[in-house]
Design brief:
This protein has 3 domains: 50 residues; 72 residues, Arc Repressor Mutant, subunit A; 92 residues, no CATH class. The protein is built from 8 helices and 6 strands; from the N terminus they run ααβααββαααβββα. By secondary structure, the chain is mainly alpha-helical.
Length: 233
């Protein structure tokens, strides 16, 4: 009987121990991501602060640089950078005074005001020649399989944050109307992109695609199930 009680105690404590191990691992991953985020933010501030650009100002310029015609509605800027509309308006006004952005009317609807990058603004947010990309260099130290695993893991983390409302817009393949996951048996290129009408693999997954068009909620959910291969994902 004593032996049975010992075995039962071991069975009861094993799941608890596993949960503790999982929680500890999650805590370390979160700490690592936060450390990377702080390091990159500090690096940007050191580089751009000397030029009179704050981190959010730099983000606005970089976002506009990726848009067609290098312009977007102020509400779009606010949504994609997950800031309040008054905050986005204030930053854009500051950048306009610095002649990095100009406001203009939308050609298709004169009631809509757009924020457009000026030539000076485009130069200010262009990557500096010879500027080392520390994060890219660090990522390059991973093996090819580790890079793909990291990319797919980031897709899952970003999607979860998006569902929690922490990230308002993420122009990722997995929520795009052109994405067709696991359409082919080729393990290297199992997915299909309707926009370019070509197969591609996890290595080519995009987190910020200029051709992104949001899928309907039903289509995005179905694509996610097919992408993860799990009905409970």
């Amino acid at each position: 009987m004593a032996e049975l009680r010992v075995i039962n105690r071991k069975k009861q404590t094993a799941p608890v121990s596993a949960r503790r191990d999982a929680s500890a691992t999650i805590a370390q991953v979160v700490a690592g991501l936060e450390k990377i985020g702080l390091a990159m933010k500090s690096r940007t501030w050191r580089r751009e602060g000397q030029a009179g650009l704050g981190p959010l100002q730099r983000q606005v310029l970089t976002l506009l640089r990726t848009k067609p015609g290098q312009r977007a509605q102020i509400s779009t800027v606010a949504n994609e950078l997950a800031v309040r509309l008054p905050t986005a308006s204030e930053v854009i006004a500051t950048l306009e005074r610095k002649q990095l952005i100009k406001r203009c009317r939308d050609m298709s609807d004169g009631r809509v005001v757009m924020a457009q990058l000026t030539a000076k603004g485009n130069r200010s947010c262009a990557p500096a020649p010879g500027m080392p990309d520390q994060l890219g260099t660090a990522t390059a130290t991973l093996s090819a399989s580790e890079q793909v695993a990291l990319l797919t893991s980031l897709v899952k983390v970003i999607r979860s944050l998006q569902k929690q409302g922490e990230i308002s817009v993420a122009r990722m393949c997995v929520s795009c109307q052109y994405f067709r996951p696991n359409q082919y048996t080729n393990a290297d290129r199992p997915h299909h992109c309707d926009y370019v009408n070509a197969p591609f693999g996890d290595r080519a997954l995009r987190l910020d695609c200029q051709e992104y068009e949001p899928a309907s909620s039903a289509q995005a959910s179905a694509a996610w199930v097919d992408f993860t291969g799990s009905r409970t994902a």
